[in-house]
């Protein structure tokens, strides 16, 4: 029944046979032609049953007296979830992913973001505090960086990571790397990739990767990929290698995926690599498209060292080649202006780590995204604080590189606490920093100007924090290193960010992206 | 600072907390920050370890600050010595506390809205305690705190001072035992006649990964919980126990502050449930039965019961089997 429906929706006048090769991958080079075609018959078959579909295809050809002779047979990959695009306006896609999840009952709005977690928890928040936030997105984002070390535990638990982390009803997406943690390069090999967890580096082979996915049972997961950040101008050879490795990993993952009972309702996302070389990017796209993946992940755009224009052009080139009917995720893009640029270039889903990164810096998101309302009338805020986030990044990097597992165990919680509030060195930095690099779209609540500011974080914000607390209170909590600071800031920042994404969806739907972009760019340049 | 808090409509306004608040006077810091403190009749002088700045905290100043904060219950500034100190310093501190109580009462600008509590001192010396009690109960205060205990002294001495104090304190005013928070101590001291308690223990220990349960505590950081898929306490109704396993909390503890919140919530629920059960059993006239059950659950068998607790309870006619 499903097949018939699909056939009616997408009539195709050509098709080709692509029987699976011995290694389980799809080759697209075989064409079969039957003599004297009477008409066309198209057969769609689900990819989870490749062997069956191949068998059926053969059967069709061998039946001589069939009234409708298949001229060509299409062996298409039909994924479980469907992307319904309502419109594409100026390159921005608007729609819904439906039939998502193990029960096929959930849907995801596009464009949208994921709910960022660390070790399966939204940072600082419990289930109850999370429920105070409006507009929490459906897909929960797990990272192997933060959960890989618990693989054995999950294998014994048997009930999947969703239930383990206290989110049994949620859609789970599992990626390799954590966007808010450093990912040192130089460790991936032809057979392994490395992720950086709480206890240090974890080396993952293909079979270990798939064993983890089977223990975790996510709804979506990215294929294993060589997505190490490559410095700009990395040798062509290295870039090509990352594309080749990733394709090899993808094929390996697919093979195990297809044989796995527990993963039969999960979707695997293909990963587009290629560094900053257009040809490699396109090659990665074209090859990945041949595989039966549920969607595509644009990888390698995380680092800040690729200048904006080439980066955005590459993204546009990649999405330009990708099929329209599958979702496109991108990793590492979170700033409001960058998000808008990517939405305009056909990206659907983003990681939701930006509110967390700002929370860790003691910053509140304050940018306006209501393009319908006159944005004037907001008092100017001068920000005199220096690059505190750089101090934190350095701490993190040296911790990862120098600590042994035992040291991490003993000390990690203290470094985490230091990050979530502000340490003594930051209090003293405050007084001496003048005119350092500021972060647009936010205010730094550790700044002394807020000490007696009894306004909410953001005037017309309806979040729990703004309805109940003041900037002065947050300033106090941050300077006394109280855990509550992280909780309140996270609530506000998440609430705000999800509101921003709703605004993006509205703008795309109403063809007002131009206004929204103007509003955001104006605020970026203000500071 | 108090001026800032006044501007914010008091501490209730600043925190947006609509329930009761109790503020301490700063007296305890004379013990906890003893190296930075210098005590004279005038008050206690603290020097800041960060910038060397000095603060002189007098009874008048302490009450002025607490007035500005607008707390519902305020504590007098008392001259506090560690319970492990003996000798003339203890006597000096006791008498001074009485004099400072009078200065606090005189300095209180808000006697109608805020309740000032006296703090009984006297260390571990029964005579000194009695003297302090006799004097302080003559003053017109809203309630009495039993201070100078819960600082590492022997439990045998501790409970005797508590009992002594509750014997003398008036029945119709609240008795607040400061710094007491372990479950067993709470149960015994309620039996000895105390009404109110405060302790950092449940939340502080939560932040170090320790979850309180009726039979003791679980150190969730320990490897033995890595694959323990039970909740902290199967009989507990708190949000943490309803949703998360020990194994998950163990895994999360290393990586995110949310673990601290989960355990804190559980520990507070544990404490509140304990006190609720105590009240309920008293209301039903079943408190001795409750104590019996509590001790059995916590320690297993009579041989394990702490001696001081058995002894203390027997003085109020609770015989443990």
From TrEMBL, chain A:
Outline the subunit composition: Heterodimer of a catalytic subunit QTRT1 and an accessory subunit QTRT2.
Which is one GO molecular function term here?
Answer: tRNA-guanosine(34) queuine transglycosylase activity
List, in alphabetical order, the GO biological process terms annotated in this UniProt record: tRNA modification
The answer to whether keyword Ubl conjugation applies is: no
Q: What does the sequence similarity comment in the record state about its family?
A: Belongs to the queuine tRNA-ribosyltransferase family. QTRT2 subfamily.
Repeat among keywords: no
* Residue positions binding Zn(2+): 461, 463, 466, 492
So which domain of life are we looking at? Eukaryota
Question: In this protein, which residues make up the domain named tRNA-guanine(15) transglycosylase-like?
Answer: 105-523
What this chain does, per the record?
Answer: Non-catalytic subunit of the queuine tRNA-ribosyltransferase (TGT) that catalyzes the base-exchange of a guanine (G) residue with queuine (Q) at position 34 (anticodon wobble position) in tRNAs with GU(N) anticodons (tRNA-Asp, -Asn, -His and -Tyr), resulting in the hypermodified nucleoside queuosine (7-(((4,5-cis-dihydroxy-2-cyclopenten-1-yl)amino)methyl)-7-deazaguanosine).
Cofactors demanded by this protein? Zn(2+)
Indicate the transmembrane segments per the record.
Answer: none
Q: Which organism is it from?
A: Chiloscyllium punctatum
Query: How does this protein lie in the membrane?
Result: Peripheral membrane protein
Under what name is this protein listed? Queuine tRNA-ribosyltransferase accessory subunit 2
Question: By which gene is this protein encoded?
Answer: QTRT2
PANTHER family named in the record = QUEUINE TRNA-RIBOSYLTRANSFERASE ACCESSORY SUBUNIT 2 (PTHR46064)
Cofactor binding, per record: Binds 1 zinc ion per subunit.
Location comes to:
Cytoplasm; Mitochondrion outer membrane
Q: Which residues form a coiled coil?
A: none
One Gene Ontology cellular component annotation held by this UniProt entry? mitochondrial outer membrane
From TrEMBL, chain B:
Q: Which domain of life is it from?
A: Eukaryota
Query: Which UniProt keywords are listed?
Result: Glycosyltransferase, Metal-binding, Transferase, tRNA processing, Zinc
What's a BP term from Gene Ontology annotated to this protein?
tRNA modification
Write out the GO cellular component annotations: cytosol
Q: Does the keyword Transferase apply?
A: yes
Pfam family example for this protein? TGT
A GO molecular function term, named singly, is: metal ion binding
- SUPFAM superfamilies listed in its UniProt record: tRNA-guanine transglycosylase
E.C. number: 2.4.2.64
tRNA-guanine(15) transglycosylase-like domain ranges (all copies): 2-298
InterPro entries with a match to the protein in the record: TGT, TGT-like_sf, tRNA_ribo_trans-like
Q: Which PANTHER family match?
A: QUEUINE TRNA-RIBOSYLTRANSFERASE CATALYTIC SUBUNIT 1
Q: Which NCBIfam families match?
A: Q_tRNA_tgt (TIGR00430), tgt_general (TIGR00449)
Instruction: Return the protein name.
Output: tRNA-guanosine(34) queuine transglycosylase
* Source species: Chiloscyllium punctatum (Brownbanded bambooshark)
């Amino acid at each position: 029944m499903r097949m018939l429906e699909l056939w009616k929706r997408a009539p195709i006048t050509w098709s080709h046979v692509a029987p699976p090769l011995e290694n389980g991958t799809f080759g697209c080079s075989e064409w079969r032609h039957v003599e004297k075609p009477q008409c066309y018959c198209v057969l769609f078959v689900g990819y989870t049953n490749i062997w069956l579909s191949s068998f059926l295809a053969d059967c069709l050809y061998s039946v001589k007296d069939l009234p409708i002779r298949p001229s060509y047979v299409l062996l298409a990959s039909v994924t479980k979830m469907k992307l319904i695009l309502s419109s594409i306006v100026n390159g921005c896609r608007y729609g819904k992913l439906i039939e998502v999840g193990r029960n096929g009952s959930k849907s995801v709005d596009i464009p949208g973001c994921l709910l960022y977690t660390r070790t399966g928890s939204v940072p600082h928040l419990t289930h109850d505090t999370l429920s105070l936030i409006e507009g929490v997105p459906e897909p929960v984002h797990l990272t192997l960086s933060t959960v890989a070390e618990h693989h054995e535990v999950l294998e014994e638990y048997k009930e999947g990571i969703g239930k383990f982390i206290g989110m049994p009803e949620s859609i789970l997406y599992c990626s390799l790397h954590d966007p808010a943690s450093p990912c040192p390069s130089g460790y991936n090999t032809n057979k392994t990739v490395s992720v950086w967890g709480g206890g240090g580096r974890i080396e993952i082979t293909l079979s270990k990767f798939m064993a983890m996915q089977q223990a975790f049972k996510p709804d979506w997961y990215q294929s294993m990929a060589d997505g190490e950040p490559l410095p700009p101008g990395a040798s062509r050879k290295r870039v090509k290698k990352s594309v080749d490795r990733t394709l090899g990993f993808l094929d390996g993952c697919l093979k195990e995926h297809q044989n796995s009972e527990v993963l039969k309702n999960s979707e695997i996302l293909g990963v587009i690599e290629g560094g900053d070389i257009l040809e490699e990017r396109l090659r990665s796209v074209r090859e990945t498209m041949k595989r039966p993946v549920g969607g595509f992940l644009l990888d390698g755009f995380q680092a800040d060292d690729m200048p904006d224009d080439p980066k955005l052009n590459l993204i546009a080139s990649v999405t330009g080649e990708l099929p329209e009917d599958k979702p496109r995720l991108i990793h590492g893009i979170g700033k409001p202006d960058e998000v808008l640029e990517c939405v305009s270039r056909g990206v659907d889903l983003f990681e939701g780590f930006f509110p967390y990164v700002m929370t860790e810096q003691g910053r509140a998101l304050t940018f306006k995204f209501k393009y319908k309302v006159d944005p004037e009338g907001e008092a100017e805020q001068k920000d005199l604080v220096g690059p505190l986030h750089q101090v934190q990044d350095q701490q993190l990097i040296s911790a990862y590189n120098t600590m042994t597992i035992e040291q991490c165990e003993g000390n990690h919680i203290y470094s985490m606490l230091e990050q979530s509030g502000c340490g003594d060195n930051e209090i003293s930095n405050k007084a001496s920093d003048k005119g350092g690099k500021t972060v647009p779209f936010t205010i730094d609540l550790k700044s002394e100007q807020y000490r007696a500011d009894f306004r909410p974080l953001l005037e017309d914000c309806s979040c729990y924090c703004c309805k109940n607390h003041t900037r002065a209170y947050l300033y106090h909590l941050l300077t006394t290193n109280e855990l509550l600071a992280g909780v309140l800031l996270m609530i506000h920042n998440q609430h705000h960010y999800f509101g921003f994404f709703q605004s993006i969806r509205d703008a795309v739907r109403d063809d007002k992206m131009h206004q929204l972009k103007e509003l955001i760019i104006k605020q970026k340049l203000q500071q | 600072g108090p001026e800032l808090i006044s501007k914010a409509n008091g501490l209730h306004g600043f925190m947006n907390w609509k329930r009761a608040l109790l503020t301490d006077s700063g007296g305890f810091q004379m013990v906890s920050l003893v190296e930075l403190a210098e005590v004279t009749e005038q008050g206690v002088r603290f020097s800041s370890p960060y910038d060397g700045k000095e603060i002189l905290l007098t009874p008048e100043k302490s009450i002025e600050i607490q007035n500005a904060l607008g707390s519902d219950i305020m504590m007098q500034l008392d001259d506090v010595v560690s319970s492990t100190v003996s000798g003339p310093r203890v006597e000096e501190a006791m008498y001074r506390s009485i004099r400072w109580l009078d200065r606090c009462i005189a300095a209180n600008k808000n006697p109608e809205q805020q309740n000032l509590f006296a703090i009984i001192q006297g260390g571990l010396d029964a005579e000194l305690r009695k003297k302090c009690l006799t004097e302080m109960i003559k003053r017109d205060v809203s309630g009495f705190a039993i201070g100078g205990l819960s600082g590492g002294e022997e439990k045998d001495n501790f409970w005797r001072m508590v009992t002594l104090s509750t014997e003398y304190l008036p029945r119709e005013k609240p008795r607040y035992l400061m710094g007491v928070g372990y479950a067993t101590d709470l149960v015994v001291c309620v039996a000895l006649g105390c009404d109110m308690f405060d302790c950092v223990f449940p939340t502080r220990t939560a932040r170090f990964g320790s979850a309180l349960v009726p039979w003791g505590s679980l150190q969730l950081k320990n490897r033995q919980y890595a694959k323990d898929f039970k909740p902290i306490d199967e009989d507990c109704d708190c949000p943490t126990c309803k949703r998360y396993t020990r194994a998950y909390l163990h895994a999360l503890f290393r990586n995110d502050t949310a673990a601290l919140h989960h355990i804190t919530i559980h520990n507070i629920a544990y404490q509140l449930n304990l006190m609720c059960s105590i009240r309920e059993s008293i209301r039903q006239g079943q408190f001795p039965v409750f104590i019996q059950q509590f001790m059995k659950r916590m320690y297993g068998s009579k041989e394990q019961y702490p001696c001081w607790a058995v002894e203390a309870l027997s003085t109020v006619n609770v015989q443990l089997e």
